[in-house]
RNA sequence: GCUCCGAUAGUGUAGUCCGGCCAAUCAUAUUGCCCUCUCGAGGCAAUGACCGGGGUUCGAAUCCCCGUCGGAGCACCA
C-alpha cells in the first residue's frame, strides 16, 4: 500500500487517516507500505521543501515507519520511459490544442486533429517536450482513451504538460515536462508493487483513467477503495493546510503547533499520543461518505492510555484568595495518584491563605472540603478549619474542591483550544520536567511545556 | 448540463455481497445512580437509528424501481 501526500505543509489531523489505516493493515497482515511524495506540480501545488521531513516526522509521531520513501520528482526519467513506450503502443499523442478548444471538442465527443498523428511525429514532439523546447501551455501529451466515452471526465486526458516554473528541489529543478498525477501515480503503483489503493472520493475517476494505461501495458490494476472527507468537530479553524498556513501568516495562530490549530503537531504538543489518533481513525473505517470525527473519541482513547500513569496536581484558574483560620495543618499531602498509593504523596505548604476557583467559592457559613487538607467553614470572610473527619464529605453535604496555596504556588499559563488561561498551581508543578503529563484535578490533563517566568502547560483534554 | 458515488442513534461503526438467528452490534456522547477526598478512573442503568414511497417475497436494514437529500468528477491541481 502507499501513502502519497503532496508535500505542501505539515499535516492536519485528517492526514493521519491514511497512515493510520494502511499502517494498521500492514502491521495486522504483514504487509508493506511506502510514502511517496507526489510532487509533480512545481507551480500550482508547489512543494514546500520543509514539508517532506515534517510529514515523515508526523508519521513517526503516529507510530509508523514506512518501508520505503519515494519522491516522484526523482523519478521523471522513469515516467518519460513509460511515456515513450506508451507512444509506441499507440496509446498517447502530443496535442497543441488550448485547454478551452480541447474541452469543447471533448464535450461534444469529437477528436482533435492531433489524435491521428503518426507515432514518429508524436515521439519527436514528446522528446521536444522533455527537452523543454515548448513553453507552458503549448504542448501536452494525451493518453488516448475513448473520445466518446460516456463519462466526459475519462476522455483523452492529459498525461504530461509543460511547466515553466522550476521545481523547488534542486535535483529536479531542470525538468520542464511534468507528468500529471494520474500518469505518475499509475506508473508508480505498478512499479512499486502496490496491490491495494485507498484514496479520496475526489479521485473516484482516477482508477478508470489509469485503467486505460494499464490496459496498454497489460498490467493488472490494484484493488481500490474510495473514502469520503473527514471533518473534525471542536475546532473553529478549518482543517485545510492552506487555511492554517494563512492564519499563521497573519499571526492569528502562533505556529503549526498552536493549540487552536487542528494539526498533528498541535495534538502532539498537547500531549496526545499518536496511538489515540490512529485508533480513532481506524474506527472511522473506509466508507465512501463523508464522516465527522468527534475529538471526544480521540480524547477517550487518549485518556485510557494516560490516566493510569499520570500523576495528579492542583491548578486553580483565575483564583480568588481566601484567608485561612483555625490552625489547619501546615502541609497538605494528597496522593500523587488515587489508584497508586505506592507512588507517594505531594507536599503542599499551606500558608495563611488559599486560592479557589470562582465556581467553588463557598457561601457564607458553608462548609468546604479542601482536597488533601481538610474541612473548612466559611465564616467572617475566612475559611475556618473545623478539623472534621472525611465522614462529613461522605454524608454528602460538603463539597470537595481543589485549591492552591496563595503564597507558595507557581504561576501557570495554560494554553487551550479556546485561548490561554492563567492560574496558579501547587509548587511541585514548577519542578516537573518538560514533556511530562499531569492531571490537574477537576480541571483536566495537561502537558508541561516549559518553565519561563511562568510555567507554560498545554491543555490536553478533560 | 453530462457522469459517478453514497444514505443505520448526536458522532463513528457492525449487519447489506449470500433476505429469516436484527423489535438491529459495539464504541463514543449525554443523563441518572453507586463508588471515590476529582467534574478523572471504575461499576450499573437510561436515552437514541435502518432517508421516503412503491415493488418482489411467507418474510426486506439487506434485493429491484422511483423519489429526496448529500458528496464527487467533467483542470495543462494533487
Molecular structure report:
This protein has about 450 residues and is α/β, with parallel strands linked by helices. It folds into 3 domains: about 1-75 and about 230-300, Rossmann fold (3-Layer(aba) Sandwich); about 75-180, Glutamyl-tRNA Synthetase, Domain 3 (Glutamyl-tRNA Synthetase, domain 3, Alpha-Beta Complex); about 310-460, Ribosomal Protein L25, Chain P. The protein contains 12 helices and 27 strands. The strands form 7 sheets. The chain has a 7-stranded mixed beta sheet with strand order 12-25-26-27-23-24-13. Helix 10 packs across helix 11 (about 295-305). It starts with a strand and ends with a strand. The mean pLDDT is about 95. It binds one RNA strand of 78 nucleotides through helix 4, strand 6, helix 10, strand 11 and helix 11.
Put the structure in a nutshell.
This protein is an alpha/beta fold and 462 residues long.
Amino acid at each position: 500500500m502507499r501513502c502519497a501526500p503532496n508535500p505542501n505543509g505539515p499535516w492536519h489531523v485528517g492526514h493521519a487517516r491514511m497512515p493510520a489505516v494502511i499502517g494498521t493493515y500492514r502491521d495486522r497482515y504483514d504487509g508493506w507500505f511506502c510514502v511517496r511524495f507526489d510532487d509533480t506540480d512545481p507551480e500550482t501545488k508547489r512543494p514546500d521543501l520543509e514539508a517532506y521531513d515534517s510529514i515523515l516526522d508526523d508519521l513517526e509521531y503516529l507510530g509508523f515507519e514506512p518501508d520505503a520513501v519515494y519522491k516522484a520528482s526523482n523519478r521523471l526519467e522513469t515516467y518519460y520511459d513509460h511515456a515513450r513506450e506508451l507512444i509506441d503502443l499507440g496509446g498517447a499523442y502530443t496535442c497543441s490544442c488550448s485547454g478551452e478548444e480541447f474541452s469543447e471538442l471533448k464535450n461534444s465527443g469529437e477528436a482533435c486533429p492531433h489524435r491521428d498523428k503518426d507515432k514518429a511525429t508524436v515521439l519527436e514532439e514528446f522528446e521536444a517536450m522533455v527537452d523543454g523546447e515548448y513553453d507552458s501551455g503549448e504542448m501536452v501529451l494525451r493518453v488516448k482513451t475513448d473520445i466518446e466515452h460516456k463519462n466526459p471526465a475519462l476522455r483523452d486526458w492529459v498525461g504530461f504538460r509543460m511547466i515553466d516554473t522550476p521545481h523547488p528541489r534542486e535535483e529536479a529543478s531542470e525538468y520542464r515536462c511534468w507528468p500529471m498525477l494520474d500518469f505518475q501515480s499509475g506508473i508508480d503503483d505498478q512499479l512499486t508493487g502496490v496491490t491495494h489503493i485507498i484514496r479520496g472520493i475526489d479521485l473516484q475517476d482516477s482508477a478508470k483513467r489509469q485503467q486505460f494505461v494499464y490496459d496498454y501495458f497489460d498490467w493488472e490494476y490494484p484493488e481500490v477503495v474510495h473514502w469520503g472527507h473527514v471533518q473534525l468537530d471542536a475546532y473553529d479553524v478549518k482543517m485545510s493546510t492552506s487555511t492554517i498556513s494563512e492564519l499563521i501568516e497573519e499571526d492569528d495562530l502562533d505556529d503549526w503547533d498552536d493549540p487552536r490549530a487542528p494539526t498533528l503537531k498541535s495534538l502532539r504538543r498537547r500531549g496526545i499520543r499518536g496511538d489515540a489518533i490512529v485508533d480513532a481513525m481506524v474506527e472511522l473505517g473506509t466508507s465512501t461518505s463523508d464522516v465527522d470525527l468527534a475529538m471526544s473519541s480521540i480524547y477517550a482513547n487518549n485518556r485510557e492510555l494516560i490516566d493510569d500513569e499520570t500523576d495528579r496536581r492542583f491548578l486553580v484558574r483565575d483564583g480568588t484568595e481566601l484567608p485561612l483560620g483555625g490552625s489547619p495543618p501546615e502541609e497538605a499531602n494528597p496522593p500523587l495518584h488515587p489508584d497508586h498509593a505506592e507512588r507517594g504523596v505531594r507536599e503542599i505548604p499551606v500558608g495563611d491563605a488559599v486560592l479557589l476557583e470562582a465556581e467553588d467559592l463557598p457561601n457564607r457559613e458553608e462548609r468546604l472540603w479542601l482536597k488533601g487538607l481538610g474541612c473548612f467553614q466559611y465564616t467572617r470572610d475566612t475559611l475556618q478549619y473545623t478539623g472534621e473527619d472525611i465522614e462529613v464529605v461522605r454524608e454528602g453535604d460538603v463539597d470537595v474542591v481543589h485549591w492552591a496555596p496563595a503564597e507558595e504556588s507557581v504561576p501557570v499559563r495554560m494554553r487551550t483550544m479556546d485561548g490561554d488561561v492563567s492560574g496558579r498551581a501547587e509548587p511541585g508543578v514548577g519542578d516537573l520536567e518538560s514533556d511530562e503529563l499531569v492531571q490537574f484535578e477537576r480541571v483536566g490533563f495537561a502537558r508541561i511545556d516549559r518553565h519561563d517566568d511562568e510555567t507554560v502547560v498545554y491543555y490536553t483534554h478533560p
